[in-house]
Amino acid sequence: VQLQASGGGLVQPGGSLRLTCAASGESVRSYAVGWFRQAPGKEREFVASTRWSGGMPYYADIVKGRFTISKDMSKNAMHLQMNSLGPEDTAVYYCAAGRVISSTRTYQSAYNYWGQGTQVTVSS
Questions:
Q1: C-alpha–C-alpha distance, residues 112 and 97, integer Å
Q2: I want to staple 44 with a disulfide (CB 3.0 to 4.6 A). Which of 12, 38, 52, 79 is the partner?
């Protein structure tokens, strides 16, 4: 499985961005996809996850109500719509995939495949 994250950039506070995680390789339809982020000087943290087939998205409290996951099954792509962005959302965002169970979906170690990351900068 290969993952390619894209869509990052510079946005003003209060703005929006949509990140995309494009998957290729063996079928990912049985996997869960997670989004993580790492701000400068901080550890990587969980943002959101969902399964390709079935299940409800799960969000970290810090993004709940602002971020939304959607899927484009025809393109094997997962999107992360980010609204009401603030400077605290500045980070490199990574998508990851794996055969993840619900109890471990917030753990990096549960994901086997990682994309290269895309930079999101929120600044005026």
A1: 6
A2: 38
CB-based contacts of 116, cutoff 8 Å, min separation 6: 4, 5, 94
55 vs 110, more confident: 110
φ, ψ of residue 115 to 5 degrees: the values are -85, 180
**What is the Cα–Cα distance from 86 to 15, expressed in whole angstroms?**
8
Nearby residues of 18 by Cβ (< 8 Å), 6 or more positions away: 7, 79, 80, 81, 82
Phi then psi for residue 110, to 5 deg, are -80, -15
Dihedral (CA of 38, 123, 115, 31) sign: positive
Beta carbons within 8 Å of 91's beta carbon, 6+ residues apart: 37, 38, 39, 40, 42, 119, 120
- Number of alpha carbons in the 13 Å side-chain half-sphere of residue 61: 0
Q: What is the pLDDT of residues 21-72, one digit of tens each?
A: 999 877 777 889 999 999 999 999 999 999 988 778 999 999 999 999 998 8
Work out whether the CA dihedral 92, 95, 98, 102 comes out positive or negative: positive
